[in-house]
Amino acid sequence: MLRARLDNISVRDQARHSSILTTDIYTLHNIGQDNPIIQKFDTVF
């Protein structure tokens, strides 16, 4: 829902959380961002 650019309050309400802080726990904050250290790592995990 956040990737579709819905606001945080709508996401909170849909998830039936009582607080936006609860929703924030489950939210990916780095959508589309790769860690530069991992980008340079060339060994198989």
Task: Describe the structure in your own words.
- By secondary structure, the protein is an all-alpha fold.
- It has helices at 8-15, 20-26, 36-40.
- It has one domain (8-40).
- It has 3 helices and no strands.
- The longest helix has 8 residues, at 8-15.
- It is elongated.
- The mean pLDDT is 77.
Low-confidence stretches: none
Number of strands: 0
- How would you spell out the order of helices and strands? HHH
Determine the number of helices (DSSP H or I, runs of at least 4 residues). Answer: 3
Please, how many domains?
1
Task: Estimate the global geometry from the Cα principal axes.
Answer: elongated
Helical/strand content category: mainly alpha
Distance between the termini: 30 Å
Using only C-alpha atoms, the radius of gyration works out to 15 Å
What fraction, in percent, of the residue positions are helical? Answer: 40-55%
Our estimate of the beta-strand percent is: under 5%
- Overall pLDDT score: 77
The largest pleated sheet is described as: none
